[in-house]
Design a protein that fits this description.
140 residues; alpha+beta; four-stranded mixed β-sheet; DCC1-like
Amino acid sequence: MERSTFVYDGDCAFCTRCAEFIERRIPTEVTVVPWQFADLDALGLTVAECEEAVQWVGADGSRAAGPDAIARLLGTSNAGWRAGGGLLRLPPVRVAAWPVYRWVARNRHRLPGGTAACALPQEARERLYGPTGRPPAAGA
């Protein structure tokens, strides 16, 4: 793999807004992609892993999830963002970051930009909204 990849849930509006922030504000060469459009097999990821947390797959094959993945992403940017990533890697911060991350993941449908679909597992989202994230056409 030539570039590191950061994988998020593209069916979640809150997650998508966060990914858009990354692409606009955090200068990095990392590929930021929704898992629904990523080659999960090539990345060595499963749907279950991607539904549980954001994922990092480094160009060197390293992997991380949740706040650890965010720390890795930040570590590829400029000095200010790298400092934030380094802070997130400190053991006491890392220990606190996981419960916060899990709370955000469970409540992402209530956060700014979130929608009711954000709270559903992938199988239920596809049943309601189709594989593209949009409701099936009438009569389909």
